Amino acid sequence: MLDVAGRTNTRARRINDTGHTNNPDGLFLKEALISHTRTMKHRGDWPDHHLLADDMSASGELSSDKEDDCEAEDSPYPEVRAVARNFDEEHLPYNTIRAWVIGLSLCIIGAALNTLFSLRSPRIGLGSLIVLFLGWVLGRTWETCMPDKRIQLWPSGPKLDLNPGPFNVKEHSVIMIMASVALSVANATDVILAQLVFYKQDFGVLYQLLLIVSTQCLGYGIAGMLRKLLVYPASMIWPSNLAVVSLLTTMHESNQSALDPAVFSGNMPKLRWFFIVAMSMFVYYFIPGFLMQCLSIPAFLTWAAPSNAVVNQLFGGTTGISLIPITLDWAQIAGYVGSPLIPPWPAIANTLLGVVIFYLGLSTVLHYTGVWYAAYLPISDSQPYDNTGARYNVTRILSPMFTLDQQAYESYSPVFISTTFAINYGLSFATVVSLVCYTWLNHRHRIWSLYTKGAHEKPDIHMKLMFKYREVPHWWYLSIFAIMFSLALTTVLIYPISLPLWAFFLAIAISTIFAIPIGIIQAVTNTQIGLNVLTEFVFGYIQPGKPMALMIFKNFGYVTMSQALDFVADLKFGHYMKLPPRVTFVCQLSATLVSCLVQVLVLNMTIHNVDGICDPQQPSHFTCPGGRVFFSSSVLWGLIGPARLFSLGQIYSGLLLFFVLGSIPPATPLNYLSWGIVGFVFQYLIKTYHFRWWSRLNYLTSSGLDLGLAMSTTVIFALSLAGVHAPQWWGNTVSQTTMDARHTAVQVVLPLGERFGPDKW
Question: Over the stretch 215-229, which tens digit does the pLDDT of each residue have?
Fold first, then answer.
């Protein structure tokens, strides 16, 4: 069910339409070193635009007849055909001083702002679409304002064009790769925050740099080894790239290109459509996001019965299961799962089926039959509770040395979780088995052939166009992996983080092994299945009582894999944009190292200059939500441990049965159901019955909605900083008075002093 419907037929139709023979050699590109003469010929009026190293850019060229063949050929996948150009504008400069200055500047700004705002609640930051738009504005401004002259950065260095001509799509792509690397705040910052603020352990700035750099960059080695499997094949489409590719190509094409009068808005340039959608969303979001917030989760039945626990559990959207999944808020639809206009319909259908079976079906049955003491707990909540129905106070079971106080734990309470949260854990267990089974059943022969015989699927047009560029040697990636592995090993051995050496090797092995099946799923469905629960479960069982070590194990066992797949996605993005792989590699690595330095600097400056940081009552709301989650999970999984939650005889032991099942990733009912409904409209109905409109504007519409939302939430956030808050009237208060919104939708409320649950634990 994970393959896009109709791909086989589409592939056959495209091959027949182009009239190509079965011999792929006739379409392969000749390999030859590119000379300065050829470079000058293609540059035309803008000579010598490539900088730093021309030898990083190309190693071959097409003959005219093969260029014609390539222009006639296209990707066998409609998603890719809709956005990625089936030709390469080789004459465009890309490795320019303009791209590097703008890219690194946005990298520094993005890393600094997103690190700062990650410490604040609610979290907000620069998104990729905002950075893409800023890069476009800065690039066009540079093109207009900078003089047309050459500069030399050092006496013996190359002369560089300060203004290499019109700002183009390849430069913009280089900027996006550098900036996007820096936008994701390293998970290691939350580990450091938990250590500094909650565990009161300061190992110094060198430790922080070693931890962040090693966890962020270890994935490069894994990514390099996965190129044959996850980048080169046409079937690995990486849907997350499609919206960005669509917007980039639209920004740099002429206004009259790709007009299609036969479809709705077909006479309008695509860039104008994008801005109309973005500005419409920008204006509209002020209604559900500021003026009438009840439209965000219009659970009208809970408004009519705000004190009825069952109604709030069944129809609430905050701690309920949303049996009527209506929302007029794009943030609710796309904010949690991502835009529903991106994944293929079969992946959306898979998710919807899982939500209906497990959340609307199994969770309801379990909850109302009283399993896991459900009557005393909300049906859908991510918070742990104690045996009085209050939030679990993890500080009550900590000793002064930040170890488990067994006596305090036995006199306090076991951990209780809501029904859907328990199902989440069960599905996470099931995911491990389903990943392995799916990969073994569907991809084992292909993986074996790739890495033993060098076999590969027939290259599509994008792969053929990339043959002219010199690939990054494996030893580059292996060298980065070896260096970062050494830094990580140094961190584990020198600093007192209590992580055994064998556990470190196990964490790296988990990241490396699971990168293949998770990468295959993500490349097709746009869903990355996390290993956070698996790593917590494994280490919590084999090394209980070590919360600090658990956080480090989780970073090397989960974050390394996640980073590797993010790097692979960027490699595929460069593949679609026809960027030389060596340029992509250098951009990624440079931006990663710069962002790591910036994040450590900003984190330490904020911690040492903001009074009461991470306090829940901090006046400027610097409450450290990410660090607090890491701290709580380290206590629950590292101190209390999974053995006290899931072992035979414990409250949630039945969830171990999920290891024999298959599953989908965990979900929040309202978010996933509304996301699935919108996905059904765009990725099935419109794609099936209005394909030309879908092919032309679907991904641009997605980008426009996301950009408008990002701009609007930024303005609303700025208003809150200035003391301007949402008006207090019925449209903003009606949803706040329900049991669902107040997290009190439980069937049985205990009198003061009474408890529920087992007598011993």
Answer: 999 999 999 999 988
Residue 476 in contact with residue 224, Cβ under 8 Å?
yes
Residues 511, 514, 516, 518, CA torsion sign? negative
| Distance from C-alpha of 591 to C-alpha of 388, rounded to nearest angstrom | 49
159: β partners = 152
Residue 42 has pLDDT above 90, yes or no: no
**Where does 88-201 have alpha helices with state H?**
97-118, 128-145, 169-183, 187-193
Helix, strand, or coil (residue 399): coil
- pLDDT tens for 254-309 read 765 566 666 777 678 888 899 999 999 999 999 999 999 999 889 999 999 999 99
- Going from the C-alpha of 751 to that of each of 317, 614, 618, 738, 754, the distances in angstroms are 27, 32, 32, 21, 6
Angle at 518 between CA 512 and CA 519, to 5 degrees: 85
Cβ neighbour number for residue 632 with a 10 Å cutoff: 17
Distance CA 79, CA 89 (A): 21
Between the alpha carbon of residue 337 and those of residues 118, 332, 361, the distances in Å are 19, 9, 21
Give whole-number Cα distances, 403 to 197, 494, 539, 628, 630, in Å: 16, 21, 16, 17, 16
Identify the band that residue 12 occupies on the pLDDT scale cut at 50, 70 and 90: very low
- Residue 656 has a pLDDT of 66
Q: What is the pTM of this model?
A: 0.83
CA distance 686 to 695: 10
d(CA 760, CA 389): 17
Contact (CB, 8 A) for 381 and 319: yes
The rounded distance, in Å, linking the Cα atoms of 6 and 647 is 45
Question: Residue 15 is encoded by which pair of tokens?
Answer: 């091959």
Q: Given this model, what pLDDT does residue 659 score? A: 58
| CA-to-CA dists, residue 704 to 277, 281, 293, 515, angstroms | 5, 8, 22, 31
Closest among 675, 73, 751 to 334, alpha carbons compared: 675
Alpha carbon 738 to its chain's center: 33
| H or E, element range at 599 | helix 581-609
Query: Do residues 508 and 492 lie in contact, with contact meaning Cβ atoms separated by under 8 Å?
Result: no
122: preceding bond cis by omega (within 30 degrees): yes
Cα–Cα dist 280/272, whole Å: 12
550/570 Cα distance (integer angstroms): 29
* AA letter at 463: M
**pLDDT tens digits, 592-651:** 999 999 999 999 999 988 888 888 777 777 888 888 778 878 887 888 888 888 777 777
Q: Are 23 and 69 in contact (CB under 8 A)?
A: no
